[in-house]
# Entry
Amino acid sequence: MTAWLLRRLGAALAIVFAVVSFSFVAIHLAPGTPFLPEQGRPINPAAVARLRDEFGLGRPLPEQYVRYLGALARGHLGESFSQRRPVAEAIATALPNTAVLAGAALLIDFLLGIAIGVFQAARARRSSDVALTNATLFLYSLPIFWLGLVLLLVFGQWLHWFPVGGVTDPVLYPNLPLWGKVLDRLRHLALPALTMGLVGAAGTARFQRAALLEALGQDYVRTARAKGLRESAVLVRHALRDALLPVITLLGLALPFLLTGAVLVEAVFAWPGLGKLAADAIAARDYPLVLATTLLASVAVVMGSLLADLFAVLADPRVRMVT
Amino acid sequence: MTVASWLGLLATLLWTAVAVAWSRRAARGPHGEAWRRFFRHPTATAGIAVLVFFATVAVCAPLLAPYRPSQQLDIVALQNRPPSWLHPLGTDLYSRDVWSRLLYGAQVSLGIGTLGMAVAVMLGGLVGTVAGYFRGWTDAVLMRLVDVGLSVPRIFLVLLAIALWDRLGTGPLILLLGFTGWFATSRLVRAEVLSLRERPFTDAARTAGARPWRIIIRHVLPNAAAPLIVSAALGIGHMMLLEAGLSFLGVGVQPPMPSWGNMIADGRDQLTTALWTSLFPGLAIAITVMALNAIGDAARDALDPRADYLFEP
Amino acid sequence: MESLGMIHLPRTPAVLALALLTAAACSRRGSCRDEYCGSLVIAATRSATTLLPPLSEAAVERDIFDQIFLRLADFTVGGSTIGDSGFVPQLARSWEWNDPLTLTFHLDPRAHWQDGPPVTAADVQFTFESYTDTAVAAGDLTALAHIASVTATDSLTAVFKFRHSYPEAFFDATFHLRILPAHLLRDVPRGEWRTAAFGRAPIGDGPYRFLRWTPGESVELTADSTFYLGRPHLQRLIWRFASDVNVAITQLVAGEADAIEVLVGPANIGRAQAAAHLKLYPYPGVTYTFLRFNLRANGDSLRPNPLFADAAVRRALVMATDRERMLQSATAGHAKVPPGPMPQQWSWLWVPELAPPPYDTTQAAGLLTARGWRDSNRDGIRDRAGRRLSFHVAVPTSPLRRQYARLLQEQLRAVGVELVIDEMDDPAMAERLSAGTFDAALESWQTDPTPTSGVPQIWSKGGGANYGGYANPAFDRAVATAANAQTLSAARAAWVAAFTTLAQDAPAIMLYALDNVAAVDSRVTDVQLRPDSWMALVRNWRIPPDRLNERDRVGH
# Structure
């Protein structure tokens, strides 16, 4: 077990290293320089040159690469060019926002997804099942940002149920009591989390339904049925227990999906998270910030899949440990 | 819209019905077992119908569209007009006919999805086959590469790669989508090849002295085709969604070429004032991707009922 | 198992949440009911990164620090930049010219820093030295190059020495400098100002104090009740950062923000007009936008451009574009077609002698044909000696310019010219412009209240931003004359001559000069906007006590 874990961790480290290297080369080769003023303002070439020099951008790329890796090894992420503060600080403000959004989306994704999947499996091939199959298929096929725009339009702009963007209300928030602050955050969270959660839930429901139907066909389920257990009891106590495992392992694999969604959904809802940070950093040629965000994303994805595997191993000793 | 283009639409619908009926009849033929399983899927017929319709529309766009897709009819008087008999889906910010753009957009969106997936499937098939057949260090290196590819959220990868060029033509965009989309396919194919190379018929060919590539092409690949086909059907949808996302972020297909993605992006500013400019392309993507997913599901049941497919988002 | 139906969950949790939230707000209702209440939320489309004036360059940063830091003298609405008649005292109570090269300011003894000490002439000297210190790596400094030195002769007297005498010396001395607190910044190494903590929690001498900054979300200022030029009426100013204009306007229409600097495009203006609680305020814009032709070959500054070296082709392309109609379509008339490189804020330059070249496709086609550009292969695009009349135009991320690119493309198509749109992000565009690797580019420039600094930079031979390589000695001479004109009418005559030359040479298609339209919640009164800094006068804006809403009273 320990050897397996060590091997997996080693592989994870190698993967993250490769991702960082690719990103380093790509962003440094991209045309355009950092430190430019807002478009339409005159550039002070001396100032730009001075800053490029200060950050060593004039040196040969391999040298910059080695320097960057050296700093990284010592735990330095560098200073963000465009935000004018340490990268670690920029990440520290954005990460919680994305974590909250992704967490809420995951919650919706799995609670709703599993519930729908169970409900469908219980009514397999009846009209409500068919209707839900079509509904989840439709949701699963939507461009996520488009769903976000539509939800924003309907629930934000037409019905005024939810705020139309941001994380908190800047006027009220600082003066609210604690529970008011929590509520304010929840109201702002609702639409973006729902956007990501619904699309995810559609996928989870499809998967859960299939897994349950397969489990329902197994011998032990037939036995339970033969013993005269009610159908709902069979479904919940026997089949679901088995069919949940593959769904739970999906959890770790949901991360890349969530991060991709975050880039688009954060743009729709002005949500100051990692996705927006990364997209802005690329557009500003903010090299250290680009590298830090891709680094973080790949660490998250690698750890997610590692945890999913670990969970599968712990939950079911029959699963072989393969690297 | 003129009478001719309404008639053209009618003809397309008729042809769609005929094509669907014809393919359902094939299911009753002597080799129809797989087709029968395919059409047993509740949404397969609808999926085929939608796909035939949009594929026809894409191919015949120049015949069906009443206007050039970039034609600005009257930039002041015909801006953002709601749907009418003349413009069944309205006009957009540039006074272009949304219906015509939707038809040409089918060409671009389906084309990018299909070609991008073709690149991805070929690359994934190749890598997966090589890794699975030769095993050893080849396998180790290739699969670590796949691990790397799968561990960056794809949109990060694509955005980074796009920043490398200050302008990206449609061809490079397709290649880029393909090059970032083959990782999961190669894993799938590798697993299939790993099991196939131990089968008696490959063993027989090997002992008969056949060269590895010959074995791969003659014996392994044809048997690994089923998961490839299914993953392609499901993957086209993903490609289309990704292209739409990129267009939304302003880095997709360059204007004036219409893609459903950049139509949504163009219409975003008018969401409250001219909903139709982004609603219809959004629905077109949703319906097409839904059809592709339905077909993928049905194809899986028909060809390979026991397989699980996981896709990178 | 009991059914869940026993529990009656509310149908709309959101409504419940809203009710609770309102209750929460009410429970902390402030007592503020007089003249000095109110919260103004400004929807900004970019976020700020630092609020240390020489380093802050984004428009939103300038908007914010203009409330925290004062100038020696303030510019007035519509004032002239020649001499000092267009200025009113701010930090300086008075000033005088000792000789043509020496300008003395007397500081207002009431002025003080928000942490206590008075503002002194030493602060002024320190400010000038730090603005011009290369270690600070500030933005464009060309305007300050005319000033030789600034010295403090006593605690309230600062003396400016100029290198030479020129009409806009007073403007340069006052407009570009925000006086900084030497006692707080002296010990911060200049090379570290970029990331100085002060830039994230500035202490100034202006009408508002810095209160808090939530990175990526908002910046909040609070009124300084002891401000010596009069207490601001609005208690809180909150800049709320949205990622783009869309989100910002959506927040405005939904009542989650109260003001926006500029509504771009008819759709946005329409949305704001439809919202009963918003009032629109048009004011002259400071930008102008044009399609620049590269007169030199793409990527080779020594060879002429095969298409655009020919002035007749350039003139033909200008005449082939219906600028008036594009403007109607893209801005609903909230802009003007500029006859030269001029924004609306130079209102004294919008004279009948200057008129945009006519829209005349017949003449444009005739000109092209006369120069040998004919459609010999009938593909719809003109060609000459095997070369198609086709060019790429670099377009940055600005939505309005992307819209114009598509409009131009169709218009030029009608006269047999192919325009290929290359949309790219802003750093890539900047690189292409400075490297000269472009055929044509859609550029937009923000201007100062005077043409003297910007126009030569962009259009004169050797100008730092003259990316197309346009050069005409007659134009340069006229610009020099204008810069040295002692009166406004003399300056106007010289500029008219310069812009007439420019129009004949047509190094660009002048497309639009925006007429900005701001939107402010209608409960706010006494709103006055200034083109050079739209919110500069916000300390005079107010909300009458009877119009204060719950949000205005929160936090007092």
